[in-house]
Amino acid sequence: DAAARSPEARHLACGAGQQWEWDGVRFEVLHPWAAARRVRRNNDLSCVIKVTAQGGSLLLVGDLETRGEAAMIARHGVDALASSVIVVGHHGSRSSSSPAFVDAVLPEAAIHSAGYRNRFGHPYPAVWARWAEAGARNWRTDSQGAIRVVISATGVDISAAREENPRYWHGR
């Protein structure tokens, strides 16, 4: 069917203001909005989604950098960004996680999605420290493997695959 192969059928644009609920879990797109389409760097066009359930919330910011973070703070205010868990923007690079953004989110946990021995050295040590100083427990996929986040009525539970199923060669 030609309609199923059209670019519109394969790509649904992410835009601020989109929201839906599924099984009692609320999904809200916070960024980007139409005016953001004129940014210098594509990273600041990242789709930012807040997932909220009874017991906690998760903020997914993609590759958003400090300019995009500042725009979100200005547009939504700090209360809308506060979350239990964040997947840290741009893999924890130095171009993300401004002090103002960290103070707005103030999560219990910050997950840094980074590849093992990545050439950029992500997560950046100052970004890691910034989240820790804000009270978040830092997690990282390169050394801990897959990070599992469960939000339930009793709160947030986070675990790491390599801690739950250690291999004798890990940590050597």
Features of the shown structure:
two-stranded antiparallel ribbon, 172 residues, 27% helix, alpha/beta, single chain, globular, seven-stranded mixed sheet
Describe the overall structure.
There is one protein chain. This protein is α/β, with parallel strands linked by helices and 172 residues long. Helices cover 27% and strands 26% of the residues. The chain has eight helices and nine strands. The protein has helices at 2-5, 7-10, 66-76, 78-81, 99-105, 125-133, 141-144, 161-164; strands at residues 19-22, 25-31, 48-53, 56-60, 85-87, 109-112, 137-140, 147-152, 155-160. The strands form two sheets. A seven-stranded mixed beta sheet has the order 1-2-3-4-5-6-7. A hairpin with a 2-residue loop joins strand 1 and strand 2 (25-31). The model has no long low-confidence stretch (mean pLDDT 85).
How much helicity do the residues have? 25-40%
Number of H- or I-type helical stretches: 8
Mean pLDDT: 85
What's the SSE pattern?
HHEEEEHHEHEHEHEEH
Largest sheet: 7 strands, mixed
Report Rg. 17 Å
Oligomer: single chain
- How many DSSP E strands? 9
- Strand order, main sheet: write it out: 1-2-3-4-5-6-7
Choose one word for the global shape. Answer: globular
- Structural class comes to alpha/beta
